[in-house]
Amino acid sequence: MCLLYNLKATSLMPKSISLLFTLALFSTSGEGLAQSPEAPVEALFNAMRAHDGEQLAAQFTNGALLQRAEPGGNIKSNDISQFAGFVSQTDKHLDEKLLAVTVQQSDNLAAIWTPYVFYLDGKLSHCGVNSFQLVRTGPDWKIHYLIDNVHGGDCEQFINQFSTDG
Could you give the 3-state DSSP secondary structure of residue 68? Predict the structure, then answer.
């Protein structure tokens, strides 16, 4: 606010306003053109931790798909609004940690592949892999497709295999 007040007093006001507008557009605050494909993925898991189903649902496009690849080759579809409702209503602490995130992007399309570890009330519940397909809708990225699986083996070994810590 002080910066804007001082700029009004100078003859550089039109250029300064333009500079402020440009900085606002390209800020890394998660808004505007600077949003990365990872932003809705991070927001999804932050919303889960906060039990904010509305914010969780806002990370997806209309018509987005949420699926799980089950053992034996079956694909289970889940309704995003029902999942968001569960997240809002549960009293359990939900925490999904991502490991070794890989991002590929071309223009308005991105793919994110990431092993994960899921904790329920602070205890290791399960682990597996998430595969996200994202599209840029204006300045924002949205998740259009999320499929995951659950690793059938030892999660501690899985964590060691994919951990980027040390």
Answer: strand
Position with higher pLDDT, 54 vs 24: 54
Contact indicator for 112, 41 with CB cutoff of 8 Å: yes
Q: Record the pTM.
A: 0.77
Tokens (6 digits) for 46: 């932050």
CA distance linking residue 64 with residue 5, whole number of Å: 45
| Longest alpha-carbon distance in the chain | 71
Q: In whole angstroms, what is the distance from residue 75 CA to residue 107 CA?
A: 29
Instruction: Spell out the domains of the chain, with CATH numbers in brackets.
Output: 1-34 (no CATH), 36-162 (3.10.450.50)
β-bridge mates for residue 146, sequence order: 66, 132
- Whether residue 108 contacts residue 136, with contact meaning beta carbons closer than 8 Å, is answered with yes
What's residue 35's pLDDT? 83
